[in-house]
Amino acid sequence: MTSIVTLENISKGFRDGESFHPVLKQVNLTLQQGQTIALTGPSGSGKSTLLNIIGGFETIDSGEMLIRQSDNMHSVAKWQDKQWSQYRRRSLGVIFQQFNLLTPLNVRDNIQFSLALNQLSWSPWCDELCHQLGLSTLLDRNVENLSGGQQQRVAIARALAHKPQLILADEPTGNLDQHAGMQVMQLLTDLAQQANSCILMVTHSEQCAEFMQHRWHVENQQIMVNPTNKKLQG
Ligand SMILES: Nc1ncnc2c1ncn2[C@@H]1O[C@H](COP(=O)(O)OP(=O)(O)OP(=O)(O)O)[C@@H](O)[C@H]1O
């Protein structure tokens, strides 16, 4: 197995005036290439915080984070903005509940914009993605005029177009009805497998969690790996 992100004894909390609220305390974990993980836990337990740390959107208070870049693990302790943005562009695909699509643009341009950030152009993989996601006939449509499920599929195509080593997803089916949500989960997991991408997905849905190989449960500032009989809360 190839590690792509390692957290060693990381802690994170937030200051609120005089008080300090710990969120994650001395957490250790490793994300492996191609692994799929559902991140569950009560509301406010720190799931999004963990995603934000791994995406470099939030700093850690202590501990160390290592990220695979060019076949080696690198400590991010001294990374500047340039290294973070390179990592986000090349190695990350992000799918959030709010699709964050570029609304004046059509489907093709939304996907192409993300490729262009990496000096990549449209490839047969992009055709395959669009085919499997049912977007081939929608490429010229303005994303504003698409349904919620269609927009979510564009967000998935955009996140996977450059075959990132890691996909961070926060409630990716939160805006969809159950049927559309399950379809999107199936496509997301199939396509991530084809791209050998790891998925770390926050979810409150038991059914969505079941699409992932592993479950990590955040509670009491700790992360339990593959807890048994852990029903979702929050
Ligand atoms: N930027 C911030 N400033 C202050 N406190 C924050 C900030 N971000 C998160 N928190 C606090 O950290 C805790 C964890 O928040 P987080 O959003 O990670 O939880 P969550 O598990 O994703 O919750 P939910 O399931 O409700 O989305 C909460 O108490 C939240 O209020």
TrEMBL record:
This is ABC transporter ATP-binding protein. It comes from the Bacteria. The lineage of its organism: Bacteria, Pseudomonadati, Pseudomonadota, Gammaproteobacteria, Alteromonadales. InterPro entries: AAA+_ATPase, ABC_transporter-like_ATP-bd, ABC_transporter-like_CS, MacB-like_ATP-bd, P-loop_NTPase. PROSITE patterns: ABC_TRANSPORTER_1 (PS00211), ABC_TRANSPORTER_2 (PS50893). The keyword Transport applies. Coiled coil: none annotated. GO terms for molecular function: ATP binding; ATP hydrolysis activity. Gene3D superfamilies: P-loop containing nucleotide triphosphate hydrolases. Belongs to the ABC transporter superfamily. SMART domains: AAA. Keywords: ATP-binding, Nucleotide-binding, Transport. Pfam families: ABC_tran. Residues 5-234 form the ABC transporter domain.
